[in-house]
């Protein structure tokens, strides 16, 4: 029978291609295949005996690059799931999974262990072997006891290769090869004595290490989730298995990598978007050949082949950077859970403030939920005080009492963190005479005033303009910045505390790989320091030295157009507050707000995320919103007004009957909240359903139309489980 290979060629084409397979090969190997007039690299995903196309018309694969598969059947099944679920071509997924240097004909050999094992026949024969064939008998006995023995270890067992070869001829033993296991880790760091809470979590997780299980580890800030991970990882690497740890953004949390390296030594690798092609390739190979036991990576690491994968950890699982917002719009968290299921291994999701989706999953019994309610090193959670700013005179955004509180801490040689979640100098530039506001020419958005460099910037399309000295509308020179951003706060703090070191942290100051590392180092200085910055400061840093956290503009989160606004606000609040009081000095959090009686604050003051989440979930349930329904967002954009919306209207017509029949809500099409962005007009059609499968089926029906639109003036995309629907 002719063998036919299904091949995912490394292009954006949304299908597999059939080729004749001229010689035996396994799924998961890369091949070179003729493709039109070109030759192209692809991966065999399946081998069958039939094709829709008659065999005479099929072309043969030109060359098989790898002798052994780079991708296991489970991993291929995982990519297939992603391809179906997120409506994305397999070939593109393989491009995420392979470093550029392997998108070409470059063979790669996994390092193999040579193994010996007793056969069934050998077991049967064992009692019958003549007494004078002592060596043979002894060899078989040892093999039976050990199950299998590596060829490198024969000496240790006093077995000779010669004897094995004789036994192999008789069919009593067999020889085989497996990919090399990861190197045994050199534990370098000290192991901390776990607290009782930590110990209980480790025990609960440890009972389920050999099969799929999903654990949600909800531990307050500073509760020592990392120590729990360490203990579980110890057990996994002791079995010579590998561990994948996904983190939001490596550049922002240099401490995490450092802590893992301190504890697990050289067998820890990192994988993120700042690596160059060579670094990426090297890490890929090290992981594949088992030289790395632990990989810490950002979201795209979820695609990597890890032959001995035994555990996945997602740290700060609530973080929105696990969702990719362009091209392949996948959630690395959800994908990782699916991968763990297919590979039948455990996965841990960790956070002080888990997403409502994950909490809901735990409540439905799909995840095991564990808690760490106390801080690990005897520190207490900080006290939270609300500062009512209604009718208060503000000094560049600060109340008198806030400034005074900062002063007291600085005099006490402490460190202070100020959160103002808006970069730049001021969010608005306006004319006080006629009310004109500087707007972007390409977006429906105001321009942000920046001080260094001195200019107006659009935070949505990166357009820049010089700052006008006169109002373009009324020609008066009564123009100026309005509102506050990080730069303006920094200015004011410098004015108020001229001798104090002030460190600003936002996307403008954190551009280079090392920058956050420098800040962590500067924070070690035993002198008063003020850190002022955006939500980048909330990202899991373990500064032992911050005694006061000031939160300035959190109110915007309470009244967001995004239904996830309050959830995000609660997370940002508790994560930022959680930076305070992690050391010996007790911590305080001051929150300036216009809405001190907002019910959410009642919970947040007590660091009671459990109750906050419960309340938010009730609201979601009543509104029928995720996680109590599933959403898919179809976005369209065009350089001409109305075209995008028109296209979505047409699309809606095609599915309206089916949607009604299936009970799927179609919301829209409507213009996006910011209709014009980077010169393109955008519209949304939101699909919402109680049943995920029906939703996916409906989209499958119009998928071809959506893909086709991309060739015309309207660009269209599908976002399954969108995080951002406005
Ligand atoms: P989380 O990630 O949960 O916010 P971390 O893992 O950063 O917490 O731990 C907070 C601090 O507590 C760290 O400085 C850590 O070294 C310390 N810590 C964690 N577990 C213990 C323990 N069992 N004994 C002493 N200190 C601990
Ligand atoms: Zn004016
Ligand atoms: Zn713009």
Task: Say what the CATH topology of the largest domain is.
Answer: Rossmann fold
Our estimate of the beta-strand percent is 15-25%
Q: How many structural domains in the coordinates?
A: 5
Q: For the CA atoms, what is the radius of gyration?
A: 30 Å
- Which ligands appear in the coordinates? adenosine-5'-diphosphate, zinc ion
Q: Give the end-to-end Cα distance, rounded to a whole number of Å.
A: 54 Å
Number of helices: 19
Q: Largest sheet, order of strands side by side? A: 11-12-10-13-14-9-15
General form: globular
CATH superfamily of the largest domain: P-loop containing nucleotide triphosphate hydrolases
Q: Average pLDDT, to the nearest integer?
A: 92
The main sheet comes to: 7 strands, parallel
In CATH, the architecture of the largest domain is: 3-Layer(aba) Sandwich
User: What CATH first level of the largest domain would be assigned?
Assistant: Alpha Beta
Strand elements, count: 30
Extract low-pLDDT stretches.
none
Structural class: alpha/beta
How would you characterize this protein structure?
This protein is α/β, with parallel strands linked by helices and 726 residues long. The chain has five domains: 4-102, GIY-YIG endonuclease, CATH 3.40.1440; 112-179; 196-372, Rossmann fold (3-Layer(aba) Sandwich); 383-426 and 483-619, P-loop containing nucleotide triphosphate hydrolases (Rossmann fold); 630-720, Alpha-Beta Plaits. The strands form seven sheets. Strands 11-12-10-13-14-9-15 form a seven-stranded parallel sheet, with helices on both faces. Helix 1 (73-86) runs antiparallel to helix 10, helix 15 (565-577) runs antiparallel to helix 17 (609-623) and helix 18 (643-662) packs antiparallel against helix 19. The mean pLDDT is 92. The structure holds adenosine-5'-diphosphate and zinc ion (ZN) (2 copies). Residues 192-195, 198, 219, 221-227, 376-377, 542 line the site of adenosine-5'-diphosphate.
């Amino acid at each position: 029978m002719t063998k036919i290979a299904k091949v995912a060629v490394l292009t954006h084409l949304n299908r597999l291609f059939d080729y004749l397979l001229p010689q035996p090969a396994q799924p998961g190997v890369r091949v070179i295949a003729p493709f039109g007039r070109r030759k192209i690299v692809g991966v065999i995903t399946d081998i069958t005996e039939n094709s829709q196309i008659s065999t005479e018309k099929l072309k043969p694969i030109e060359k098989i690059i790898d002798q052994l598969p780079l991708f296991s059947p489970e991993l291929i099944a995982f990519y297939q799931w992603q391809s179906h679920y997120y409506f994305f071509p397999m070939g593109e997924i393989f491009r995420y999974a392979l470093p550029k240097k392997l998108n070409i004909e470059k063979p790669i050999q996994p390092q193999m262990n040579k193994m010996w094992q007793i056969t069934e026949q050998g077991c049967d024969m064992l009692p019958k072997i003549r007494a004078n064939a002592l060596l043979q008998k002894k060899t078989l006995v040892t093999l039976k006891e050990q199950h299998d023995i590596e060829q490198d270890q024969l000496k240790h067992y006093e077995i000779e290769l010669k004897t094995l070869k004789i036994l192999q001829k008789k069919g009593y033993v067999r020889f085989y090869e497996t990919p090399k296991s990861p190197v045994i880790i050199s534990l370098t760091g000290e192991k901390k004595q776990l607290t009782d809470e930590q110990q209980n979590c480790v025990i609960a997780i440890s009972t389920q290490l050999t099969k799929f299980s999903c654990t949600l580890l909800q531990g307050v800030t500073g509760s020592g989730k990392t120590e729990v991970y360490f203990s579980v990882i110890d057990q996994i690497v002791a079995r010579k298995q590998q561990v994948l740890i996904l983190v939001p953004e490596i550049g922002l949390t240099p401490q995490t990598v450092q802590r893992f390296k301190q504890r697990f030594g050289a067998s820890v690798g990192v994988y993120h978007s700042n690596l160059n092609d060579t670094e990426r390739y090297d890490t890929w190979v090290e992981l594949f050949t088992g030289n790395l036991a632990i990989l810490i990576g950002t979201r795209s690491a979820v695609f990597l082949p890890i032959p001995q994968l035994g555990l996945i950890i997602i740290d700060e699982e609530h973080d929105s950077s696990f969702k990719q917002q362009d091209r392949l719009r996948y959630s690395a968290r959800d994908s990782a859970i699916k991968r763990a299921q297919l590979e039948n291994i455990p996965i841990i999701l960790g956070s002080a403030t888990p997403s409502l989706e994950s909490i809901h999953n735990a409540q439905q019994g799909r995840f095991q939920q564990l808690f760490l309610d106390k801080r690990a090193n005897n520190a207490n959670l900080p006290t939270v005080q609300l500062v009512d700013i209604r009718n208060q005179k503000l000094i560049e955004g600060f109340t008198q009492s806030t400034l005074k509180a900062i002063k007291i801490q600085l005099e006490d040689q402490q460190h202070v963190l100020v959160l103002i979640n808006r970069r730049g100098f001021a969010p608005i530039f306006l004319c006080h005479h006629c009310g004109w506001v500087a707007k972007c020419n390409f977006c429906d958005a105001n321009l942000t005033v920046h001080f260094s460099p001195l200019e107006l910037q659009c935070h949505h399309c990166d357009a820049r303009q010089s700052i006008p000295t006169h109002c373009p509308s009324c020609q008066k020179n009564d123009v100026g910045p309005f509102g506050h951003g990080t730069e303006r706060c920094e200015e004011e703090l410098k004015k108020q505390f001229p001798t104090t070191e002030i460190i600003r942290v936002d996307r403008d100051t954190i551009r280079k790989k090392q920058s956050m590392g420098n800040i962590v180092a500067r924070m070690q200085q035993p002198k008063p320091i003020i850190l002022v910055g955006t939500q980048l400061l909330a990202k899991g840093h373990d500064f032992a030295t911050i005694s006061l956290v000031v939160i300035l503009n959190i109110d915007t989160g309470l009244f967001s157009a995004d239904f996830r606004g309050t959830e995000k606000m609660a997370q940002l609040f508790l994560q930022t507050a959680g930076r305070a009081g992690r050391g010996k000095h007790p911590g305080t959090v001051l929150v300036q707000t216009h809405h001190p009686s907002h019910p959410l604050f009642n919970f947040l003051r007590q660091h009671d995320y459990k109750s906050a989440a419960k309340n938010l979930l009730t609201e979601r349930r009543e509104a029928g919103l995720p996680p109590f329904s599933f959403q898919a967002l179809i976005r369209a954009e065009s350089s001409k007004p109305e075209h995008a919306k028109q296209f979505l209207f047409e699309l809606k017509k095609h599915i309206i009957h089916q949607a009604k029949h299936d009970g799927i809500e179609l919301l829209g099409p409507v213009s996006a909240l910011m209709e014009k962005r980077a010169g393109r007009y955008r519209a949304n059609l939101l699909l919402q359903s109680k049943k995920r499968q029906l939703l996916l089926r409906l989209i499958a029906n119009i998928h071809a139309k959506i893909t086709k639109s991309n060739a015309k003036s309207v660009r269209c995309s599908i976002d399954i489980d969108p995080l951002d629907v406005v």
